[in-house]
Write a structure and sequence with these properties.
Layout: H1 16-65, H2 87-97, H3 101-112, H4 121-133, H5 137-149, H6 157-169, H7 173-185, H8 193-206, H9 209-220
Helix pairs in contact: 2-3, 3-4, 4-5, 5-6, 6-7, 7-8, 7-9, 8-9
Length: about 220
């Protein structure tokens, strides 16, 4: 609506009858101004609503496609993506994923830590087996020990001795000692006096002081022919 505003009155001041004609016009001007303000406010609210909706949509899209770390994982699932931002742990994970056997063993020990909130028996076994696949004898000894004690499943003496055998053939003194004792006592395999002596003597040659003491004690318990 086009509003016609009367011209300003010169002195003297307008008469009362003139004011009666001006006031309604001013009221109309005020109404139009108020309506314009409301219209502007409504437009701003609409724009704000559209803007907020766009931001929500954008956030959902980013969450859908961005490689954010998972917060939860099922037991046995590789949870490397949710490891805390510890640079040392992340460096070990990177090396393990690149095929470093020692890093795999370190990562297995990290998952095996009962005080670790990410403790996971299945992942411990998984990384130890991967490390053993690279020829890491320490992983073979650990797998043999876990199988012998049944710490992470059913006790399997035969499987334990198989791991000790693999590690002993790679010159692991610990595996030689345990394999020699298994051959002596017939644990997980048939008893074999000669093999027991062979592996226990090899353990004495290759091992540190504690291994040598253990091998010597085990040899002393082998009955004479």
């Amino acid at each position: 609506m086009r509003i016609m505003i009367p011209p300003a009155y010169p002195s003297p001041a307008p008469r009362p009858s003139d004011l009666q004609e001006i006031l309604p016009v001013q009221d109309m001007v005020d109404e139009v101004a108020a309506a314009s303000i409301v219209e502007v406010e409504d437009l701003s609210l609409r724009q704000l609503g559209i803007g907020a909706g766009f931001l929500v949509l954008l956030a959902l899209l980013v969450l859908a496609v961005a490689p954010f770390p998972k917060l939860f994982a099922r037991p046995g699932e590789d949870r490397a993506s949710i490891v805390p931002g510890d640079t040392n742990v992340l460096a070990v994970i990177q090396k393990a994923n690149l095929g470093d056997g020692e890093a795999m063993v370190t990562l297995a020990n990290w998952y095996n830590d009962r005080h670790n909130p990410y403790h996971d028996d299945a992942l411990t076994i998984n990384w130890l087996k991967k490390a053993a696949g690279t020829g890491n004898s320490a992983a073979m000894f650990a797998l043999g020990n876990l199988a012998m004690t049944g710490q992470m499943g059913e006790r399997d003496e035969k499987k334990a001795v198989e791991w000790f055998q693999k590690g002993a053939e790679l010159d692991s003194p610990q595996c030689m000692l345990y394999l020699g004792i298994a051959c002596r006592d017939g644990v997980g395999r048939a008893a074999d006096r000669n093999l027991a002596i062979h592996w226990l003597q090899r353990a004495m040659q290759k091992g540190d002081e504690s291994i040598r003491r253990g091998a010597l004690e085990a040899l002393s318990k082998i009955p004479p022919v």
